[in-house]
Design a protein that fits this description.
Blueprint: E1 2-13, H1 20-26, E2 28-45, E3 54-57, E4 61-64, H2 73-81, E5 89-95, H3 105-120, H4 127-141, H5 149-156, E6 159-165, E7 169-174, H6 179-187, E8 189-193, H7 200-209, H8 215-233, H9 240-253, H10 263-274, E9 277-282, E10 290-295, H11 300-306, E11 311-312, E12 323-327
Parallel strand pairs: 3-5
Antiparallel strand pairs: 1-2, 1-12, 2-5, 2-6, 3-4, 6-7, 8-10, 8-11, 9-10
Helix pairs in contact: 2-3, 2-4, 3-4, 3-5, 4-5, 8-9
């Protein structure tokens, strides 16, 4: 049996520039961090006592004879990609936070599942390969309209500047920040769940369709990403500059398509600003899910009161990325997957 733990991520800057349709022409850059909220995948070879070969447990329960019958797209395509046709498999998914919430949960699952399937075969792979193959499965096998940052953030972990381009795919550069400043950044951040489900691939398709008309704001958002990284690494800039840049970036992001925000989100954001917030954004493709707020610590209680109708979720940064946290020998298959 294998258990993997894969972190969700908070994307600060550059979201939208990580879609291949954009970065293959213009390049892309994002700043994000993984957080201490996780997706867990439990995976084992299925004992040969059942009438089915694949048992999948998530919000639904599937029991099928063949891989092609599996409805969950990521499970189906990951099993095909990993060539699990000969041996039955049981997969269970658990999560600290709800799906479709803007924290990269779908890609965290794909990364964690591939990680567990490789481990089940007795193989350990580099983080870069894990991220690249999760991108391949989601974009080329499932054919979802998703970007490329979530898979990288989930696989690598940590606070990173991620650069995308057509030739190399992606480059991951850890952002080197004084520990005191990193702690200060974390103390200034708040996470609220708006409670509205949203389908990232649908919103992403709308953003991709509008990329030609949105070229100027997207290029400006990329510039702000570099400015934010420089500000974090600078001895001269205080941490509050980061919050002001978040606000500027949010104003640009919400202009990309009318589906990114709505009246409820706008009212909540305005209430946070009136209560002392310096900036923030809706995470992910928008339309709901989690909202990130940047504010001085002394303003946090007032902001929580102003947003009392939203669920406040404390979090911390994490550095490890996708990890195997449990392994035990399977009596029904050897390390190569042979019965």
């Amino acid at each position: 049996m294998i258990i993997t733990r894969t972190p969700f991520r908070v994307s600060f800057f550059g979201g939208g520039s990580d879609y291949p349709a954009w970065y293959n022409r213009h390049g892309g850059v994002v700043l994000s961090t993984s957080i201490d909220k996780y997706c867990y995948v439990i995976c084992r070879y299925l004992p040969p006592f059942f009438e089915y070969n694949y048992r999948i447990r998530y919000t639904k329960r599937e029991e099928t004879k063949t891989i092609d019958e599996i409805q969950h797209p990521s499970v189906r395509e990951c099993l095909k990609f990993m060539d699990f046709y000969k041996n039955g498999v049981e997969i269970q998914h658990n999560s600290d936070l709800p799906a479709m919430s803007g924290l990269g949960s779908s890609s965290a699952f794909s990364v964690g599942l591939l990680h567990s399937l490789y481990a089940l075969k007795g193989k350990m792979i580099p983080k870069r390969q894990l991220a690249a193959e999760a991108i391949l499965v989601e974009q080329e096998k499932i054919k979802e309209c998703v970007g490329s940052q979530d898979q990288v953030a989930a696989a690598f972990g940590g606070l990173n500047k991620i650069i995308f381009n057509e030739r190399q795919g992606f480059e991951v550069s850890p952002v080197i920040v004084y520990e005191s400043k990193l702690i200060e950044l974390q103390k200034h951040l708040m996470l609220f769940f708006t409670g509205f489900p949203r389908y990232a691939s649908v919103l992403a398709a709308e953003q991709i369709k509008n990329m030609v008309t949105n070229e100027k704001p997207l290029l400006k958002m990329m510039q702000l990403t570099d400015t934010a990284v420089d500000s974090l690494c600078s001895d001269n800039d205080g941490i509050e500059q980061f919050g002001k840049l978040l606000h500027e970036s949010w104003l640009l992001k919400r202009s990309l398509t009318s589906q990114i925000t709505n009246n409820v989100i706008d009212q909540a954001y305005e209430a946070a600003l009136n209560a002392g917030a310096l900036g923030g954004k809706v995470l992910g493709a928008g339309g709901g899910g989690f909202m990130l707020i940047f504010a001085r610590p002394e303003a946090h209680q007032k902001i929580r009161e102003a947003l009392k109708n939203l669920l406040y979720v404390p979090f911390r940064f994490e550095q490890l990325g996708s990890q195997i946290i449990f392994y035990s020998h399977d009596d029904y298959a050897d390390s190569t997957g042979n019965l």
